[in-house]
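Worked example 2:
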Amino acid sequence: MDIAPREIIDQPDDSEWQSNNLKDLPDLKSKLEARARLGVPMSAFKLARCNLEGIDLVRHKKNYGYQLKNSDLYRANFKNAHCFMLDLSGSSLMKANFSHANLHCANLSNCNLLGTNFENAKIEHVNWGKEIFQEKQAKKANNKKEKLDYYEQSEEIYRNLRKTAERQGLFEMAGHFFQKEMIMRRKQMPRSSPRRIISKIVDIFCGYGEKPIRVIVFSLATILTFAVLYFLLGLSFSGDSLAFNPDLTVWQNFKIFLSSLYFSVVTFTTLGYGDLAPIGIARALAALEAFVGSFTLALFVVVFVKKMTR
């Protein structure tokens, strides 16, 4: 245990903490700090609207924090609180005030974060979970209206987290929240609407501008795919046809494939040296690849500049 025996005196038991009858308890903050120092997990505590400003819930000289899980902290005041590594997973933090609080390495997975105030809070390395509470509820909802409402709440939460991260210069985190914000917005659109389809395509290609690596992977896959097609359909070089021929050796076919790959690269990047030329249906493929390449390269520049100038 982390607490001296004398500190246990007059300590409410857990059934009282879970009863919501301690809101006006004198010296509530000190008693909760003492309860935390028992080292026993705190679960389902009812602390809605409680004033816990400046509370110290840091497990000093330990590499793990206290647990305050599945608790009701609606509109609780945690301003200037010390919550380093505090496990709040599963708790309702709806409209709670964590302004100027230290939440480094805290666990906020599966928490209700609607309206939570993180202004100037330290949120580096916070565990937000793969999906927030409302996002999970939206996937479970059977009623369309309820589902849309949860997605709208999710969008609002992710927007709030994005702005908080941006103000603190946590741009990688802000980028992640921006992508999730846009996904939640897309989920509110009619399933077959053009806007939703376009939004999904943008997400796949570049993660709404937050995943430039996706553009690179798509480019490489496109170049390789067209190279295989040119290899099968044939190219013209100084009047000779270059195409897969089962009568040739593996090495000879491999050299033809390398020529097809080279042609695919210069076509995708619209360099077009002119030493190789498509023949037959490969002409249409070359035109298509040139169009896709121009669009993809422009998209990469936009995404790259967006990431670098943030």
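The longest helix spans residues 282-308. The longest strand covers residues 235-237.
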